[in-house]
Amino acid sequence: MFELIVGAFLGFLMSFVALIYFLKFRQSRNTQALLYNANESEILLKSLTTDANARLCHFPKSTVMHLCGYNPSDPSLRSLSNFDIIKTSTECLFARQAKLWGSSDWNPSCSVAQNVSSWLHAFTLFGAIQRGLDGFLVEVVGQEAGQTVERFATIVRMVLQALSDNDPSGYRCMEKDFLGKRGWVFSFDKREYFITTFAACYPSQHSRYAFGVRHSCFILFQPYSSFLWHNVGNDTPYTNWSNPQTVRDKIRVKYRSNGRGYPIPENTDSFPVAHAFVRPLYDSHRTVVRWWDPLGCNDMPSSCSETSSPVRLAEQKKDA
Questions:
Q1: Cα–Cα separations (whole angstroms), residue 63 to 28, 137, 239, 263
Q2: pLDDT by residue (tens digit) across 98-121?
Q3: What is the pTM of this model?
Q4: Cβ distance 152 to 201 under 8 Å?
């Protein structure tokens, strides 16, 4: 009897060890592949993004730096450091505690596409992991960056276009004919993002005010899962201004009480989300910055950002 018990115990122990080894192998397989292919990071990142369990894995900093070429979570990173004044001053209730990854240092002497390529691996890895992260921040640096809404809109379009051109899934959201209309959302590697932008062109009473940051503008990619983690709730045109109950109510009330209230769509279900990416100088839902249109805000008069012409107002009503 004793021998049978010992034999059964040893059999169970060996099976347990084998199971642990198998699970650890499954979890580390993609990371090991990336490490062994340091010069072929596209292959490694592809293996990560095709593994549904990859987003549940937690990678050490050394591995992240090895894959990205820099540490995108380093608080001293120029993009994150320059954004800190906005992060700590904005009325968003969870901004101060938000966990962000940032882009590598922007080189004004290089093209937008070249700059995007320098942090493309980090952005892809961010999308694969995502769990516990609130956003990926891109800083664009230059003497004229964000100095006018028109220039800012062009920069946003070029950055999003460069990402779309390199989408591992091949979807290329920036090529869709319904961009700027209901139903379109920015996506990369089959993951969807809401985009918030900040620039020096916006005055202090604007919700996209940069709090004194000059010669830089920011594009913040927020995974929709982040809104769920912070219990923001579904978007709605209704706000309890006198007695805010939801997180969304409280955020709206705080923005308005500090003089930076923003317009709320009358119908949030039909509102084209692209219209919120780059806001007009004088915030209103009767004006739309058509940032996705190369002819709409590229070297055009300032009125283009205000959608003031009858033609553009007609286009807005048609798109909605």
A1: 11, 20, 44, 43
A2: 999 999 999 999 999 999 999 999
A3: 0.77
A4: yes
